[in-house]
Amino acid sequence: MCGIVGFVDGKIADKKPVLNSMMEAIRHRGPNSAGTLQDKNVAIGFRRLSIIDVNNGMQPIYNEDKTKAVVFNGEIYNYVELREKLESLGHVFSTSTDTEVLVHGFEEWGIDELLKRIRGMFVFIIYDFESGEITGARDFFGIKPLYYYNHNGTFLFASEIKAFLHHPNFKKEFNERSLKPFLTFQYSATDETFFKNVYRIPEGHYFIFKNGQLKIVKYWDMKFSEENLSLEDAVDQIDQAMHDSVKKHSVSDVPVGSLLSSGVDSSYVTAIFKPQHTYSIDFDTNTYEEGSAASALASKLGLENTRGIVTREEAIKAIPLIQYHMDEPEANPSCVPLYFLTKLASKDVTVILSGEGADELFAGYANYGYHSHSKIVRALGENLKKLPKGIRYNLARGLKHLPNFPGRLHLYESTAKAEEFFIGQAKVFSEIEAKQLLKSEYQDSESVSEIVMKSYQKVSQSEDEVKKMQYLDLHQFMAKDILLKADRMSMANSTELRVPFLDTEMAEIAAKIPTKHLLNSKDSKYALRVAAERNLPKEWAKREKLGFPVPIRDWIKTDDVYLEFRKLFSTDFAKKFFDQSLIIKMLDDCHEGKNDDRRKVWTIYTFLIWYKVFFIDGGKKPDVDPQVLLQA
User: Which reactions fall under this protein's catalytic activity (predicted)?
Assistant: First the structure.
């Protein structure tokens, strides 16, 4: 795994010191070596974490006549086949890396055809010395990040925003319009980031920059197309595709391990891969506990498991560092265990496999219509879904206004339009609650509805409601939260995290499986669980999803954490954004057990920590070294 930085700026005479400073800011992404390219107004830098062809894979890598060069962050899993094809067409390779197929493939086929042929996770930048054109692409799902800043004659791009802080013509400004949506979604949910004029290259898009003009083009999107598959056929295809994907994702010239929780997704990957090393994490509390189940599974599979224990003190100490590595405020509590888990794994391996993406592709979330624990209610919901849309929607409107009763929410969400109730997995504050807390200057932003409708408008309205919800989560929650924290927390510890579920061939399988095989009265993610059961003990294939549970409530109830939170909530800069009396009362009541607003308190806390790191302390890396404590 690696890190990329670059800029086009005619106002800087000596580009090398600027480029080196930008590269140093993301050294954690590639501690093994560095490379640069400079030509006229263009400067591109690269930090390398060596994975494939460790000794000879320095970047940039050039084509035969050195008219084009590539820098690359990621892995191309079908590079061997692509190399054979390109060599048959006369291309001469100078390394054994997967990187080199990109520059030759670009030269042979152009960007559109190249992107149709490659299979992997990636961000790459290709520079044409003859035309001065810069072409960059981000992978299909957004596994690898890429940001840009195009303002006042300066064009910047990088794997992480923090690199921009080291460019003299980057103007660091807080984006006021980002805060209100964040309080609802828990992550940076809009197209523009928390830094004004800084944007992401969207997942499944490439860009071309030439003569001061930026063009962004979509090359891939998830397209659902149900086929009349039997459950047995669906399960066969899932299991076959998973074995193929895990095999490709495990190719490496350095040690590879696997993250292991108590859930089916990482367990399925691990059971197929059977690595020497597996890793799990727990906190020093009895409230949540996953590590013992993961250790038990590893034992059943005959694998080694290293289990880490994180103390409350170490977890809280890590928050400023975690927010620094995230670049933007991130209130998903699972950042904390993931940071320590990848730190634990980095002691033995450089590459780790994980289970992200399974819930979005195979309908694993409870709020896709699996709220009720009653089999009768779930069965009724399944039958109601078979009604004509007009009748279902009218029924939903009636259910919405009825007094609450057991199963009402499940039945409502089984019959309503997705657009009427579903905004994705994370919903912390309602918009009304966010407005009540925020000062007036932070009220002007896109509404939650405007944000999610950008995705809903792209998915066919002929799709069923579950498919619409999956599509939204793929482009919002997964791309902007789940995959971002996976990249950032692993890269913070100089490890490469690979996600076998997020493979285009896996996506093609998922797209054609009927919803009835994915979500039904028996379970969520049903067909995937049946496929996993071929490789796992039944009790693991059927396990309920926990995610990475974090004992926030326990922490806030302790005096030391509460006082630290209260000190932050009482600062002058907190008063700049929030009605200070309201947020302090929310915290006080949570500490005293008068409310259960731990997620709301945590969301405010993480934002204030992030703001302190980047705007009060100037974006310097916090000088802390949190340690994971291994269980004896």
Answer: L-aspartate + L-glutamine + ATP + H2O = L-asparagine + L-glutamate + AMP + diphosphate + H(+)
| 287, 554 contact by CB (below 8 A) | yes
Taking the C-alpha atoms of residue 178 and residue 171, their distance in angstroms, rounded to an integer, is 17
Model confidence, pTM:
0.95
The tokens describing 53, both together, are: 């062809």
Do residues 141 and 480 lie in contact, with contact meaning Cβ atoms separated by under 8 Å? Answer: no
In a domain, 571, yes or no: no
Hunting for tokens 């979500």 — which residue is that?
519
Q: How far apart are the first and last CA of the chain?
A: 32
Strands 154-158 and 147-151: antiparallel
- Domain that includes residue 119, residue range: 1-216
Distance from the Cα of residue 100 to its chain's centroid? 26
In degrees, rounded to 5, the angle at the alpha carbon of residue 385 between the alpha carbons of residues 382 and 389 is 175
Structure confidence by residue, pLDDT tens digits, 25-77:
999 999 888 999 999 999 999 998 877 766 677 899 999 999 999 999 999 99
Contact between residue 198 and residue 159 where contact means Cβ atoms under 8 Å apart: no
290: pLDDT confidence band, cut at 50, 70 and 90?
A: low
Catalytic residue status for 590: no
Q: How far is CA 329 from CA 182, 189, 194, 224, 415, in A?
A: 8, 11, 8, 32, 35
Which of 1, 2, 163, 601 is the catalytic position?
Answer: 2
What is the chain's Cα-based Rg? 24
Are 568 and 608 in contact by the 8 Å Cβ rule? The answer is yes
Nearest-10 crossing angle of helices 408-415, 389-400: 150
Tens of pLDDT, residue by residue over 574-612, are 999 999 999 999 999 999 999 999 999 999 999 999 999
Choose one of 195, 216, 237: the last residue of a domain: 216
CATH number of the domain residue 152 falls in = 3.60.20.10
Query: Could you tell me which of 73, 70, 212 has the C-alpha nearest to residue 155?
Result: 212
Place of tokens 């916090």: 622
Q: In the prediction, which pLDDT does 632 show?
A: 47
Structural domain count of the chain: 2
| 3-state DSSP percent of the chain in helix, strand and coil, to 5 | 45, 15, 35
Instruction: Classify burial at 512, counting beta carbons within 10 Å of its beta carbon; exposed 0-12, middle 13-18, buried 19 or more.
Output: middle
393 within a domain of the structure (yes/no): yes
Identify whether 543 is part of a domain.
no
Beta bridge partners of 230: none
Half-sphere exposure of 630 (CA within 13 A, CB side): 8
CA atoms within 13 A on the CB side of 508: 9
Query: Of 401, 430, 464, which residue constitutes the final position of a domain?
Result: 464
